[in-house]
Amino acid sequence: MASKSVKALGLARKSLTALETGLATRLPEAYKKFYKEWKLTEPTAVHYIPETGKWKRNDITGEVFPVQNVPLPVIYPPEANNHIWGGDGVIQGFQSRASDVRRVPHFWVPVLKRTVVYSEVLDKYLSVIVTERAISLINSNYGFDHYLLKTPACDLKGLLPLRLKRKILQELQKGCPSYADKPEKQSEVLHRFENYLSAYTAEEIEWYGYSLHEALRILKQRIEEEERSKVVPLKHMYRAQLIEKLKAASLSEMVDNKAEEISSGESGSWLQKINPFGKKRET
Amino acid sequence: MWKSLFTAVSKAPVLQTTDILNQQLRTTFILRRKTPPLLHKQGRKPKTLRSRHYIYELVKDTDVEKQADIDVILTSYVEGLGNAGDKVSVRPTFAYNKLLLPGLAVYASPENVEKYSNLTNDSEKIRYSSKNAFYTVQTLSQMLLSVVMNKENPWTLKPWHIRVCFRKCGYIVPEDAITLPEKQISGPNMELEDKEFFVTVTINNQEKVNVRCRIHHWSTNITERIPHVHNFWEILSEPVIPEQAPILESMPKKRNVIKKRQASI
């Protein structure tokens, strides 16, 4: 009998991705779609020039080799989530400065600057920290809104631009309430950016641009709320029952009283019932 | 054979490489591995990178490279650039900080080009004959022109006198652009000394600006000359022609006088 590897039989233990474990499995499809666009799509090559074509020939030997672009590992520090880096990142590596000198560790860090970006949909000027690349991308896309809406999540990278994108999409969904006093401008802006909305459903926009941690927190909250609304404490039930009983009792009592009054002809006050000269009680 | 196969493969929609280079490649650093990693099996994970694969060489640092100019459409007149509706090519940083963010211009995207094409014919916006016209008007309206005339020989003020006086200050003004006051001014007359009048200069047959002038008598004979007055422009004077008095009142004073006054306040 030919032996087969465990892997070939499909029995090997597959390592689970972040979306396949724990609470994350209960996340809606809308969020999973965003997560795949953000984390599992290959971003644009920023720090290296990828080779084009499928094959290349060695000029001297004439051998043909496949073209395999192995991207440079890039670090995105936590600060990048509060800035707009436009796909830039930090590269950790070595420099070989001379042939007879040992390689030297080096970090290639983008230059950051604080500037202002203007979002036409939100009608707001935002002071943010950006890289030069982000500004040039805004310029080449003819504006900040176009840049955010055109660029996929894998190239926006940071949470701030993703959050802004969600905000802009939500604003467009509502029909640009920031221009409520200028209906002409409002319709013009809507007309210009409407076509971006067709790529998303309402649920996708709702779940767009959250980190996995944030999304799980939201999901947890919703689950808890749902459970809370389902389970009613027994004391609430009993209280309601008691109130109803009391109401029914008081009603019947009133009916009895009225009937008595009619039969006796006068209202029986408690003063009349008291006899001051009656038998004394033993003390 | 390979060539034909390659073309067939590259035309297949699934196998087409993404148009990565279509996007502008502008970033801080573009690097290259000194030792490229070995080829891996197709459909498998790339091989584990070793230390030698982390030795990088700098291909280019695009932050220090000169960026290309960008096109913008002006939405209002910008001093030294152009009128509303003009498409101008400027440095990207200047365009972003000084034109696009303040709202003086918009990006020259195809839809904007179409939208703002009728702005050049818009009569509501103020239009200047050239990009520097507004600046010239401002400069001329704030100057004090010394009209230096002869103290001995009789003269009547002509446009060429004014032209020469302008030239002495560094302004080349054609004679036909100068309009003198209707009332003739003639001398030598020591009553006119240090008195003011204004001439009108027409720029490009469009913008008109009044220029404050002051008569000063000059003699070739040194002993005959009027003694020098320090900062004579700070001393107020009377009009040559009484009818011009209200306009001279309303005209701005010489530039450094204005500055000095602001400083003292």
How would you describe this protein?
- Chain A has 283 residues and is of the alpha+beta class.
- Helices cover 43% and strands 11% of the residues of chain A.
- Chain A has 10 helices and 6 strands.
- In chain A, α2 crosses α3.
- Chain A starts with 28 loop residues before the first helix and ends in a 10-residue tail after the last helix.
- The model of chain A has no long low-confidence stretch (mean pLDDT 90).
- With 265 residues, chain B is α+β, with helices and mostly antiparallel strands.
- Among the domains of chain B are: 52 residues, Ribosomal protein L9, N-terminal domain (Ribosomal Protein L9, domain 1), CATH 3.40.5; 132 residues, Roll (Ribosomal Protein L9, domain 2).
- Chain B has 7 helices and 11 strands.
- In chain B, the strands form 4 sheets. Chain B has a 4-stranded mixed β-sheet. A 3-stranded antiparallel β-sheet of chain B has the order 4-3-5. A two-stranded antiparallel ribbon of chain B has the order 1-2.
- Chain B is elongated, with a radius of gyration of 33 Å.
- The termini of chain B are far apart.
- At the A-B interface, β2, β3, β5 and α2 of A face α1, β1, β2 and α2 of B.
- β3 of chain A pairs parallel with β2 of chain B, so a sheet runs across the interface.
